[in-house]
Structures are given as C-alpha cells and as structure tokens.
Amino acid sequence: MASYDRNFTDELRARLSIVDVVGRRVPLVRKGQNYWGCCPFHNEKTPSFSVNEEKGFYHCFGCGEHGDIISFQMKTNNMEFRDALRELADMAGLKMPEYKPRDPRVVAAEESYLQITEKATALYQGKLFEPAGAAALEYVRGRGFTDEMIKKYRIGYAPKNNLIANTFSNMRQEKLIATGLCRRGDYGMYDFFRDKLMFPIFNARGQIVAFSGRSLDGSEPKYINTTDTEMFHKRATVFGLNFARDAIYRAGRSIVVEGQIDAIRMQCNGFGETVAPLGTALTEDHITLLCKSNRNITFCFDGDAAGQKAAARACAIVMPFLRDTSDVRFAFVTGGKDPDEVIKTGGADAMRKIINDAVGITDFLWDLANKNYITSTPGGRAGAEKFLSAEVAKIKDETLRREFENEYNSRKFNQWHKWKKSGNNAHSVDLPAADDITRATLCHIVNTFPELVERYGDFLATLNIDFDAPRPGMQMDEKTAERYIVSLKLQKYMTQLIAEKKECMTQMLAGADLGGRLAQINADIEKVREKQEMLVLI
C-alpha cells in the first residue's frame, strides 16, 4: 500500500473534532472527560462507545472497535481510504492534494530540519550559562525563572556572533535557510537570531520546529519569531501546547494568555493548562487546535485598550466553535500588569481570583454591544442589534444559536426598552400585581415574539414583571399573543376608568361640579366595552 502525505492527514486530524465527526452519525452525551453513545458497529442498548476529544480516538468497550476520524469515516460509510479523506477534507474546508508515495528526499529534509533545530537548541542552552550570556541569564532569573524552569522549557541565548552559521558552515546553505535560523547576505550566511533570549517552539509531538527570540536591550519588537517554514506555521502553532495537553485534560479547560513568558509563568504556578499565540493575533487555526483538547477556553488578556481589542477579536473567532457543552470566558488583568507580574507580586491566589472572576461569553458579547453603541438612542440600539445578530449567526449549532437569540431578545427588552413612567398623572392608579398565570403567559410572549415587545413595550413596562424569570413552554401563535396583550391593556384601562368614576362621584357628593367629567368617563367606559366585545369576536 502506498504511503500518503502525513502532513495532510495530520492537518485533517488537527482541524476536525472527532466528536463532531462521530456526532454526525452517533448521538453523543458527555460524561466526565469522554463522550458516550451506542456503538454504530454492533447492536446495543446500553452505550459502551466512547469518544476521546483530546486523544482523537474512539473505542467501543463492547465489540472492541477502535480508531480515529479517518477509520470511522471509512468503516461507517464503507469507503476506501482516499474517499474517506476526500469527504473529511470537504468538512475541514481543505483542498484534497494529489496523493503519491512520499518522496524519500522530503522525508530526509524533514529529519535534517529537526536535527538542526535540536542541535541549535542545545547550543543556545549552553551559551546562556557562558559569560556571553550573563545578561540574558540575569534577565530571565530576574523574571523569576528557576534553573529547573529554564531546563524544562530549554531556554537559551543567541549570542551576537553568527553561532549557527559558523557551527553548520559545512552544511548546504539551503538546509539552514529552510529552518529560518540563517539568512544569506552580501557577505555570506548570517544568523537570524542574535543577542536574543531564546524560547524553542515545539509542535504537538514535542519536536522543536521554530524559535521565539526576546530582545534584551529594550529594542522593538520585543519578540521575533522564526518566519514560516515547511515545518512551522505561526498562525497554526500554539506556544506551550505540548506541555499543557495533560493539564488541559485534567482541568477541563485551556487558558489563553498573550505572551510566552506569561504562559510559562502560569504553567509553573498551578495553571498548567495555559498557552499563548506566537506574536500574532489569535486565529481560527489556534482555536481549532485548542478545541481538539477541550472546548472550554478562558481568554486572559491585559485590561488595556489593546487587550480589550484582542478579547473582542477572540470572541468573534470562537463563536463558530461554540457547542452546548462549551464554557468560554474572558478574564482581564488590570492595573498595567500581566499574568507574570500578578503572580510575582500577588502569588497564584491573586491570579486564580482573576481567572475565577472571568465573564462568560454571553455577558461579554452583551457588554461589547453596550460599550460600542449608544443604546439610549434608536440608532445606537439598531447598530447594537445588528452587531449581536451578526455574531450570534456565526454559531453553527441551531439550538444553541436560538437560545442566544432568546437570551438577547429578553435583555434588549428589559434593559433597552423598559422605561419607567415619568411625569405626574392626576388620574393614575395603583394596580394589583399580575397573577402567576398572567405573569407566566407574558414571560412566554416576551421571549417568543420580540416584534410584539417593540410594539407594546411602553405598556408591558408598566406591569413590573421580571421577564427574565423562568418561563413555561406554551402553544400560542403571534395573533393569539397580540390579542392577549391588547386584552390586558383594555382591562387595565377599564380598571383605571372605574377608579376615576368612583373618585369623581365622591367629589360630586361633596358639592364639586364634575358632571361633564363624569359624562366623559362614562363615554370612555362604553368605548372600552365595545372594544372588548370586538376582541372576543375576532
């Protein structure tokens, strides 16, 4: 059998959630860290078919079937390997490449690449503890890094000279250039990283595929990363994920911070599930990788304008990945600090409080709408509604999308359209609170027919009902719902007129000349009765 491009099959596994692929055919229920359902490969009534999102495989404890997304697609659809890949590629939005046996030269090039990056890492590690690396070592220790942390993350120092170019001088230049470690100049090869504190970047298998270098002299940018290569794509690489995988599984979530040092500090202080993007804005590829481990994500950004902007972008990107089991939250580090500083000054407990106080995505998106639009004006509310609708429309799960819509419809009515009556009204009366049946019916109407809320918002606001309260499921069409509201409105008006009539007659007995007013009230009462009778006939 011909061997196929491992990079493409790996990308399929990285882009597609096995829970989503299997869930198209098998109803799954999450229990603990796994998902369970009835096995599609043999008849059973009690679910023994387990799907592990993190490890990307399924296993049936009844019949022993075991595999990944590719084998599942092949077996459940009776497909050949290539046909299964083609369907999975369509799901992932990837172009199906022309398959042929892997070129031995490509395999050799990859092995050579990894050998170079591994040796370069060892060289950088050694230089950190030599006199040339004294400033870098002092800096990293000043940031609170112990020798054990330095060793674990293989932190090193790239000196000012051409260490890598000179060490590999006998190697073909194209190989060095392919790793991004060296470039070709007018006077020969030179190192891309010089006078930098070096952080190796690992792929998911723990292999070193690139580097991130931090400046030590205050120059900008603070970090430079290996440019994209055949083995490394910055937009699809999450820093620290190789160390965080097990912790993400145990914690049932991942934490995303802004920088490498923050991620390392968090991992070493009780937040092993922490990762970071690599000097670039968060991308869909980053979220895809994280969702492969767990769909519960807490984004932890600086509280400044840049951090708020990054959080808003993260929110927009993560919406299509939401499922009914997702718990996505947003935490902010304020006071001009970052997680590294918080832990150094306040310890892990201070950071834990920030993470525990994170805002859920429903509230965060609502807050964004209220911050970015002036919701006290009709135009501002219209803009905010369009923004919310566009974001919610990204949710692929239809039931979940509908729940978001219902939630925001309720909030829009209660917070944007619920005005208190102002001004003095000589004929106003205190009406009794709505009974439980009326309250429940109106809660259902308000959360089911937002267009009626817009039409009768002024009246509904006078009823002092908490429309966020639990609401029962009811069978009622929009026409019936509107008749119900109009009926209540007429009933309330009738109660007010009767109270005014009693007050008018009391004053007339005391000698007041209010005959004209009494006649007008009687005429109004008659009109209301006519409308009530017409409403019954409709």
Walk me through what this model shows.
With 538 residues, this protein is of the alpha+beta class. It is 51% helix and 12% strand. The chain contains 21 helices and 16 strands. The protein has helices at residues 6-15, 18-23, 69-77, 81-92, 104-128, 134-142, 147-152, 163-167, 173-179, 241-251, 260-267, 284-293, 305-318, 339-356, 361-372, 378-392, 398-416, 436-448, 450-461, 478-509, 515-537, and strands at residues 29-31, 34-37, 49-52, 57-60, 66-67, 156-158, 182-185, 188-191, 196-202, 208-215, 223-225, 254-256, 274-275, 297-302, 328-333, 359-360. The strands form four sheets. The chain has a five-stranded antiparallel beta sheet. β10 (208-215) and β11 form a beta hairpin. The longest helix has 32 residues, at 478-509. The radius of gyration is 32 Å and the shape is elongated. Residues 419-433 have low confidence and may be disordered.
Give descriptors for this structure:
538 residues; alpha+beta; 5-stranded mixed sheet; 16 strands
Count of beta strands: 16
On the 0 to 100 scale, the average pLDDT is 85
Distance between the termini: 75 Å
- Pick out the low-confidence regions: 419-433
Which structural category fits the helices and strands?
alpha+beta
* Gyration radius, rounded: 32 Å
Concise account of the structure shown:
51% of the residues lie in helices and 12% in strands. It has 538 residues and is α+β, with helices and mostly antiparallel strands.
Describe the protein's topology.
Layout: H1 6-15, H2 18-23, E1 29-31, E2 34-37, E3 49-52, E4 57-60, E5 66-67, H3 69-77, H4 81-92, H5 104-128, H6 134-142, H7 147-152, E6 156-158, H8 163-167, H9 173-179, E7 182-185, E8 188-191, E9 196-202, E10 208-215, E11 223-225, H10 241-251, E12 254-256, H11 260-267, E13 274-275, H12 284-293, E14 297-302, H13 305-318, E15 328-333, H14 339-356, E16 359-360, H15 361-372, H16 378-392, H17 398-416, H18 436-448, H19 450-461, H20 478-509, H21 515-537
Helix pairs in contact: 3-4, 5-9, 11-14, 15-16, 16-17, 17-19, 19-20, 20-21
